[in-house]
């Protein structure tokens, strides 16, 4: 398989019948010829320029409210999402996506974590499907096909209105190729138990699909090295033992020997290492299985261990605070997600 077959440039020169559309505050329905129609009032920075100029570039999200960012009739594919907002929104906002009028979301993740900015901290990320650029420009290039409809919502669970929410959702309307699955993303958070120091990244998935990515926001609650644990992928009926077993946390994210430094690359990275005085250490890590998807026929479970070292050279079970996002594609319907933690249990330490 050549580079052009991987999908990065395979369609750049191909002319199709697809229709390109884009939703933003300046064109909230994405309709053709419907952008830049907001009327300025006397308080608008564009009041001296008039209609057709920069009048409504962003929106305010009221406290304790849910806002529909996009409602699209298919078939089509979302190609790119760009969002920027203040850091207070990163764990207080929940991003949800629904495909084909399904009753439960296929994506339900705190806004910042979806874009690899866990711990409610802006983090520069330079990868293929997720890019975070200065200062806090969130970008997703995960393709998100839908046959009938797509709905994207953002819920503000903070007790105050949040001003200055900027967004752009770029998509195309066209018939879908055969064999396409639907995009999913799920967030979890837990403190590992010393009796069994394992964090569940994903479980309960039923159906056929492929696992395509992991993001971890890891808060270290012990001194010393924290990344000796293995990641495990239980596939298609695996019970006690997994089909795919890693050899260490830094190994899974394709670093080595305790990292020693941060990095952000096309498919994997360790972009965040907070080691400030009087603060618990915090880490942010991602790996995208784009060229190496983990395929499953009936079910998948993903876990990671939290292990360090005792002074006697034996593994130390760790009680660490781990939040995760699992990204995968599957044929619908999907199983209902675990209930999202209340806002005060999502706040970073």
Write structural notes for this entry.
The mean pLDDT is about 95. The protein contains 3 helices and 25 strands. The longest helix is centred in the N-terminal third of the chain and has 4 residues, at about 90. The N and C termini lie far apart (about 45 Å). It has 2 domains: about 20-175, Protein of unknown function DUF2961 (Jelly Rolls, Sandwich), CATH 2.60.120; about 180-345, Jelly Rolls (Sandwich). Strands 3, 5, 6, 11, 13, 15, 18, 19, 20, 21 and 25 form an 11-stranded mixed β-sheet that branches. Strands 1, 2, 4, 7, 8, 9, 10 and 12 form an 8-stranded antiparallel β-sheet that branches. A hairpin with a 5-residue loop joins strand 23 and strand 24 (about 315). The chain is mainly beta and about 350 residues long. The chain is globular, with a radius of gyration of 21 Å. It has helices spanning about 90, 110-115, 250; strands at about 20-25, 60, 65-75, 75-85, 95-100, 105-110, 125, 130-135, 135-140, 145, 150-155, 160-175, 180-190, 200-205, 210-220, 230-235, 245, 265, 270-275, 280-290, 295, 300-305, 305-310, 315, 320-330.
Average pLDDT metric: 95
Which ranges are low-confidence, i.e. pLDDT below 50, for 5 or more consecutive residues?
none
Overall structural class, as computed from helix and strand content, comes to mainly beta
CATH superfamily of the largest domain: Protein of unknown function DUF2961
- Strand residues, percent: 35-45%
CATH topology of the largest domain: Jelly Rolls
CA-based shape: globular
How many structural domains?
2
Q: What is the β-strand count?
A: 25
Q: What is the CATH first-level class name of the largest domain?
A: Mainly Beta
SSE arrangement, N to C: EEEEHEEHEEEEEEEEEEEHEEEEEEEE
Can you give the helix content as a percent range? under 10%
Gyration radius (Cα, Å) is 21 Å
Which second-level CATH architecture of the largest domain applies?
Sandwich
Number of helices: 3
Distance between the termini: 45 Å
For the biggest sheet, the summary is: 11 strands, mixed
